[in-house]
Structure prediction request, 139 residues.
Amino acid sequence: MLSTKILLIEDDPGHARLIERNLRRAGIKNTITVIDNGQSAVDYLQGYSDIQEMEDSLMVLLDLNLPVLDGYQVLKMIKSSERTRKIPVIVLTTTDLPQEVARCYELGCNIFVAKPVQYDDFCTAVQNLGLILSIAQMP
Prediction:
């Protein structure tokens, strides 16, 4: 994951800071760009001029509860577009309802992580995600 940019789509600034801080604690040094609503995320992805660069060097951490376009709409757009379908998407959200998890996988998410409610558990979960990302092979 050396040169992979992380696009963090998260509308809660506190969660965005915690996610970034705990990814850094796990040794992730990649560039992290934070976008706070679904429409801006779609616009960002559609603004890439070099499709191959985007596929080769971008990964998305996606919250589901977003303003303008929700995370399901963003996920559907990413995975249904020929331009963006190969981008790895990790859903990182507060819900852990089985039907919501199943829906995300049906829409094409690569990994689903529920954000724990407790602060320490949240930090641990994101650090563990960072450890996985540090050794994962991206397509």
User: Anything to note?
Assistant: The radius of gyration is 14 Å. Strands lie at 5-9, 32-35, 58-62, 89-93, 111-114. Residues 5-135 form a domain with the Rossmann fold fold (CATH 3.40.50.2300). The helical segments are 13-25, 38-46, 51-57, 71-80, 98-107, 119-135.
